[in-house]
Amino acid sequence: MSKSTQKEAPLTMDVFTAGIWKENPVFVMMLGLCPVLAVTNSVENSLAMGAASIFVLVCSNALVSALRNFIPKQVRITTYIIIIATFVTLVDYIIQAISLDLYNKLGAFIQLIVVNCLILGRAEAFASKNSFGKSVISALGMGLGFTLALVMLGGVRELLGAGQLLGYQIFSLNFEPWIVMILPPGGFIVLGSWLLLINYIEQRRTGKLIAEDAASHCTVSPTRSS
Amino acid sequence: MTESPPPPPNEVPPLPSSFSLISTLGVVAMLSGLLVVLIYEYTKPIIAENKRIATERAIFKVLPKATSRMTFVVRNGQIERADDKTIGELIYAGYDADNNLVGMALNAAEQGYQGIVQLLYGYDYKTGCITGYDVLKSTETPGFGTKITTDKDFLANFNCLDAKVNSEQTGLINVIKTVRHGTKQNPWEIDAISGSTITSNAIGRMFNQSGQALHPIIAKNLALLTTAKESERGEHE
User: Fold this and answer.
1) Which residues in chain B are contacts of A96 at CB distance < 8 A?
2) Structural domain that includes position A57
3) What is the H or E stretch that residue B130 is in?
């Protein structure tokens, strides 16, 4: 049986917030891109997929963490997949019970949460090595970060592709929708644009920090005249 | 004095016993099964009710004059009374407030561009017309294939799409087919949506298949369908 022997880092706010921005699963780790590209043609679909992913992520990480000392290393991935598949099946039934229309809109992508590498990745990389509370908090942060990314994509695609947000007309009826935005290429275009913008902001921020750091540590050196 | 030799650098840790591996997987699988069964049993009646509401909504949408409905199933070319849980080719008959048969709602499905398109359509047995449809399931491309529910010109095809049964009651008089946009000449032809030809063709094929198979059976069993509501009322009284 595998035992966690290393002393664990304390539970801080960073554990929760890392997944939302600093280690955002979509914009930073680039995980689970299949549903990100497939279901983000509207904000409603993005929110539903985000909520389903949060449920599966939190429940599976909680169970993996609770059982981490009892699961032999040799069968850990199989066990994680069984646990994840269980919660995906549950969420599948729950969505059918809440709204059949929503279930039909999301199609096969609910079942495909089983193979979302974000969920298996977090179970293997985090939940299997950390305490129950920390795993749940981290999973919640990651799930919210995933949902945020889905909504950021879904919002732009629905706005430009249909002139609406959450079904409410935003642009005038004279606006000619950019159909490409709600088609698969639109997913790639919007994801690429968000990545470009986020990386640009991040690079500028990092550059500024480095410059400030250098300025505070630098010693005055004599200038050389040519 | 002898010292114990250091362990080799690449020593493989001992494997746990097979019993330990099997029992772990067994326990996790049992827990998983228990959770799935619990949620399945809890949500089953809710999902069934949702499906019933969705079916009912679709039936009354394609048969707007109907105020009540009855379910039948086709077995060996005959129509029998059934309920919504019956497995098989279901026919929904719609009746007005005076228990007169106003039409039937029939299922049809065909492969579209991205997946199966599933519809429920209204059939007026008096005029032999397909009078409209409601999309039950579709994953067609937004903005293209989804026009089958919004394109006014396309929907106008179904004000009265000719699906009359031949005199031998073996099939339709005319094969229902989809034609290129702007070339429709006959009432049994469907004017395709420009840019959504594959979905338009799928609609034509599914109506033809369903019409050829079901409309003659309806014609042969019309007496049962028209009197079923009265008979049911008689049974209750």
Assistant:
1) 43, 47, 50
2) 14-155
3) strand B129-137
